[in-house]
Amino acid sequence: MLGRSNVVSLDKALLLLHQHLPPCHSRIISLPLEETLGRVCAEDIISPENLPPYPRSTMDGYAVRARDTFGASEKLPAYLEVSGEVAMGEFPEQGPQPGGCYAIATGGILPPGTDAVIMFEHTIRIDDNMVEVVQPVAASANVIAVGEDIAKGEILLSKGHCIRPPDIGLLAGVGLDSISVFRRVRVGIISTGDEIIPYDQHPEPGKIRDTNSASLAAEVRNINAKATFYGIASDNEKNMETLVQQAKAINDVVLLSGSSSVGTRDLGEKVIAKMGSPGILVHGVSVKPGKPVIIARADDTMIFGLPGHPVSAAVAFDLFVRPAIIHFSGVTDSGLPQYRTIKARLMRNLNSASGRTDFIRMKVSIPEGREPEAYPILGKSGAMSTMVKAHGFIEIAEKLQGLKEGEIVEVRLFD
């Protein structure tokens, strides 16, 4: 495959990637609940108790025996004695006698002997001790029963679930202060090229700042993985090989930025081929931008050679690196879409070469009273500003030769 003589289709590249992803063997760690946002459950999480542990009111009103309200109407109301009140935060030790009721607020624990709550709106207060009921209630009305939300022993979150804010609230609700999660996927990043200097330095003529390491690290962190920068490798085979070996030793994924093009000084393919079996799977995919990407597996580490142009690197990351990181994270495939999308009307014609999948940056505008509009942001793959101006991108399939103005397109939005 040396020399990128066999450029493959996008579908073929993705198939090879998924066929060669090593098994996920993420180490399990225990974390405090407040640190688990975005982490992945390493085991099924079982509820240690019922939620709620006691029956609670879901309305402001009166806790009653439902049978004491049967037949009540505006013309023939039922009369109940108000013999107590449920104070918030307290457990009622006793309840009303038959024909009586307790005032209760939303969230209050039902007193013993009561089985329903009648809303204030369906009562008329006669005096401090008596209330008129003008509508009957059934047993369990306006009440959340013991374990109705979550039952003791029920699976709260399944293994492979990515934890969201409401999940943390649920776990807190049953008293869990720590859970087992997979450790973050580790991603090593290496920039390459004699012309590259750290981005905090002033470039002399012929030099350029290393922007890809910063943007790629941000992409990695954005999907809850851990990024480590190993520095800038010169166009020297030994130097590059040393850095790649260091990164491969402790990372699940290694990214080489600017090492995938074919040329006398582009050593990425040669170095990656030395890292282990099965070796390079793909060098060159028929996509634009991002064509000269390298996809390789070296033992249990995935190695990607990404183009040096920022837009190409970003597209290659989204297409190939993101799925690999998600695989290593232990996330279970839910079958849900992996991206946020919006349908919009294309506002100009776009040409595309047949036999190549094109990804076009798009700015989306939503005029008042009209459907969303998609405006192409055109520019070369080295123009970083096109990514900043765009809200997302569209895909022009390999079999198409372009899209016409006025067509409805699906814009994949950036995170």
Indicate the topology.
Layout: H1 10-20, E1 28-32, E2 45-46, E3 56-57, E4 61-64, E5 78-85, E6 100-104, E7 116-119, E8 123-127, E9 130-133, E10 143-144, E11 155-157, H2 165-173, E12 178-182, E13 186-192, E14 196-197, E15 208-209, H3 212-222, E16 226-233, H4 237-250, E17 253-257, H5 268-273, E18 278-283, E19 287-288, E20 294-298, E21 301-306, H6 310-329, E22 341-346, E23 350-351, E24 357-365, E25 373-376, H7 385-389, E26 392-396, E27 402-403, E28 408-413
Parallel strand pairs: 5-6, 13-16, 13-17, 14-15, 17-21, 19-24, 22-25
Antiparallel strand pairs: 1-12, 2-11, 3-10, 4-6, 4-7, 5-9, 8-9, 18-20, 20-21, 22-28, 23-27, 24-25, 24-26, 26-28
Helix pairs in contact: 3-6
Write a short abstract of this structure.
This protein is α/β, with parallel strands linked by helices and 415 residues long. It has four domains: 10-27 and 183-329, Molybdenum Cofactor Biosythetic Enzyme, Chain A, CATH 3.40.980.10; 29-51 and 162-182, Molybdopterin biosynthesis moea protein, domain 2; 56-144, Beta Complex (Molybdopterin biosynthesis moeA protein, domain 3), CATH 2.170.190; 341-413, Beta-clip, CATH 2.40.340. 18% of the residues lie in helices and 30% in strands.
